[in-house]
């Protein structure tokens, strides 16, 4: 067992890791009740009681508002559509700019483009990987209408500084809470820290409804606009007596009764699922953090992390081999998961900084980047966000072994693989030389 698997040795483990599955008997029973009722959705795209959906949707939203400690929660069919609705609700349009994060899933940054506005990337903090307030301030212009922060990997962004900037410059704050359903900042859950919060319920997340999302807010005006955008607003405003028509054309972003019934059960399980996820994370952080050059996720003071994945920092000078080679050696020691999860649970970096994607490089989106009303000069040049680039291309790796369903022995295999690769890291020199 001393020869590294990457160099032809026997891997630490061949057995696939368990599939992440949070769905149990409770969800099956809840779904069955809805199926037997025949009422799979009760939304109507017209003003009236059913404009807000059926009983399960409403019950789920009441429960989510309680969880997020916000006055309002509206379910949607994804976080992506929730972000569209949030941007729309903030009256954003052609000529406007929205400050976004570069190191996140692509949906976090694209919503402004749907409304003809321009995403402006600020850099991230090297320890929390969330937007850096200093970089945000450098990017604020007279055109800035909102800051779209992401609580990336589950660590809350530096909200008091971000909210202070928003107040000073009179701009909105939208929180992308997709990866942070149980994160808290200074004693308050995320989702109610800015003007609007948006959660994800897709099947990769801590809890899920297959696809889905929730928008949270304390602001009645924003809540009403979100509801219009979710459900055919153009057809509703007249009968509802809505005076402010900006961005009230609607989509169909509605969640079904079936998904809402599953969501109610999933939300009840969130505390116990998080307890397991945190305990797994602490075990891995404790063990892997003993290896010089590998730094476990930082948790800022008075912050609660949701550990969607565990982001570790990697110092190639200390370890003596480049990160990508080290990660390749680990991947060779450990298989992926069962079924659909064919990818490794170890990632070299996370997502390439978004402005490097073709959509930004070629400025696709007719009335956004190339809008005659846009008087700014946004940059998407390589090198734009040096911290995000450094993290992604050299200094960060992610682990997904912390999720519920992993046994102690699964986690121990991960630790053994790290120790094996670390001990024999000098053998890797010839791989990259
Ligand atoms: C940070 C972040 N934002 C947005 C999304 C999009 O979520 P959804 O699939 O619910 O649209 C994801 C999904 O992975 C995400 O991780």
**Distinct small molecules:** pyridoxal-5'-phosphate
Please state roughly what percent of the residues sit in beta strands, choosing from under 5%, 5-15%, 15-25%, 25-35%, 35-45% or over 45%. Answer: 5-15%
Rg is 23 Å
The amount of helix comes to 25-40%
How many strand elements? 14
Name the strands of the widest sheet in spatial order. Answer: 1-9-8-5-4-2-3
- What's the CATH class label of the domain at 25-266? Alpha Beta
CATH 4th-level superfamily of the domain at 25-266: Type I PLP-dependent aspartate aminotransferase-like (Major domain)
Question: Mind summarizing the main beta sheet?
Answer: 7 strands, mixed
CATH architecture descriptor text of the domain at 25-266? 3-Layer(aba) Sandwich
Question: How would you summarize this macromolecular structure in one to three sentences?
Answer:
The chain has 433 residues and is an alpha/beta fold. The chain has helices at residues 25-37, 55-68, 79-89, 107-114, 133-139, 159-169, 220-230, 237-240, 257-288, 316-319, 323-333, 358-361, 386-395, 408-423, 429-432; strands at residues 72-76, 97-100, 118-121, 144-150, 172-176, 184-185, 188-189, 196-200, 213-217, 294-295, 303-304, 310-314, 346-348, 396-399.
């Amino acid at each position: 067992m001393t020869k590294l698997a990457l160099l032809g040795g026997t891997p630490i483990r061949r057995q696939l890791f368990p599939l992440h599955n949070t769905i149990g008997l409770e969800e099956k029973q809840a779904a069955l009740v809805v199926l037997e009722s025949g009422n799979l959705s009760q939304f109507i795209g017209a003003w009236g009681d059913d404009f807000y959906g059926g009983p399960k949707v409403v019950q789920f939203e009441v429960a989510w508002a309680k969880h997020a400690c916000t006055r309002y929660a509206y379910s949607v069919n994804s976080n992506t559509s929730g972000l569209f609705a949030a941007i729309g609700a903030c009256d954003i349009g052609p000529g406007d700019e929205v400050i976004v994060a570069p190191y996140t899933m692509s949906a976090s940054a694209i919503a402004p483009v749907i409304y003809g506005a321009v995403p402006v990337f600020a850099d991230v903090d090297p320890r929390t990987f969330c937007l850096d307030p200093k970089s945000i301030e450098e990017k604020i212009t007279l055109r800035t209408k909102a800051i779209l922060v992401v609580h990336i990997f589950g660590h809350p962004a530096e909200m008091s500084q971000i909210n202070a900037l928003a107040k000073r410059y009179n701009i909105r704050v939208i929180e992308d809470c997709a990866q942070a359903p149980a994160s808290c900042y200074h004693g308050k859950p995320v989702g109610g820290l800015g003007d609007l919060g948006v959660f994800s319920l897709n099947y990769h997340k801590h809890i899920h409804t297959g696809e889905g999302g929730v928008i949270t807010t304390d602001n009645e005006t924003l809540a009403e606009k979100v509801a219009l955008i979710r459900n055919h607003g153009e057809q509703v405003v007249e009968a509802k007596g809505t005076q402010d028509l900006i961005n009230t054309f609607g989509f169909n972003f509605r969640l079904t009764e079936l998904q809402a019934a599953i969501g109610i059960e999933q939300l009840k399980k969130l505390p116990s699922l998080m307890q397991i996820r945190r305990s797994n994370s602490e075990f891995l952080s404790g063990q892997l953090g003993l290896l010089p050059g590998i730094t476990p996720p930082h948790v800022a003071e008075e912050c609660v992390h949701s550990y969607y994945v565990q982001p570790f920092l990697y110092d190639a000078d200390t370890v003596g081999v480049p990160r990508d080679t080290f990660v390749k050696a680990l991947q060779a020691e450990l298989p992926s998961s069962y079924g659909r999860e064919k990818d490794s649970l170890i990632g070299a970096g996370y997502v390439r900084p978004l402005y490097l994607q073709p959509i930004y490089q070629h400025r696709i989106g007719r009335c956004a980047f190339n809008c005659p009303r846009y008087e700014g000069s946004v940059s998407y040049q390589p090198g734009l966000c040096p911290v995000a680039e450094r993290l992604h291309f050299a200094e960060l790796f992610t682990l997904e072994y912390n999720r519920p369903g992993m046994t102690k022995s699964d986690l121990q295999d991960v630790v053994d693989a790290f120790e094996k690769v670390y001990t024999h890291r000098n053998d890797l020199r010839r791989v990259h030389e």
